């Protein structure tokens, strides 16, 4: 897999590139936001994942992520020392697929890279060939992967859509955390649990319906279908 590493620290980039190369990745190193954007032309240049450090010399990493997402759907993993939930949600709202906090374990990073790069049969997660799901004011268009609330389109990331569509298949049914992680992230890696929490928080905020996804303490989550 080709991977674009966006990191302004040459020493960090060299060490990480060596590790990634040992695990079969073909790494291209960009030292700034502008270099990263140029490397993604044309048509993402065949990259499978972008590993994006937020502390760049020329542009804020969040800004770079937004620009990347406008031109391509390539998976983006943000890497930063900012560990608060608000920063994570902001990154996800801009289109990031995952968020890794420094200092991180190399095994953790590799697991996350492999998880976001799996683009498999999530385009139509609903059974029975349904094309749309209706949950009160929420409409989920499966073929186009579009979600709207009261007719207004809500911009979701790929994983946010996958998560919402999975829960919406069976409103009221509790999905265990392990099951969600397995079906949406295609991994059984335990460290993905924090990412799940952040995606749930982001969905609640974007849909402006905090009660739509209920936390079942110690088990997982379920979707509570709104009235109307």
UniProtKB/TrEMBL annotation:
UniProt modified residues of type 4-aspartylphosphate: 53
Stored Pfam families: Response_reg, Trans_reg_C
GO CC list: cytosol; protein-DNA complex
InterPro entries given in the database record: CheY-like_superfamily, OmpR/PhoB-type_DNA-bd, Sig_transdc_resp-reg_receiver, WalR-like, WH-like_DNA-bd_sf
Alphabetical list of PANTHER family matching this protein: REGULATOR OF RPOS, SENSORY TRANSDUCTION PROTEIN REGX3
Protein name: Sensory transduction protein RegX3
Keywords for the protein's UniProt record, in alphabetical order: DNA-binding, Phosphoprotein, Transcription, Transcription regulation, Two-component regulatory system
GO molecular function: phosphorelay response regulator activity; transcription cis-regulatory region binding
Organism (species): Streptomyces cellostaticus
Stored Gene3D superfamilies: 3.40.50.2300, 6.10.250.690, Winged helix-like DNA-binding domain superfamily/Winged helix DNA-binding domain
Domain OmpR/PhoB-type: 130-225
DNA-binding residues: 130-225
Keyword Mitochondrion listed: no
Residues covered by the Response regulatory domain: 2-117
GO BP annotations, alphabetical order: regulation of DNA-templated transcription
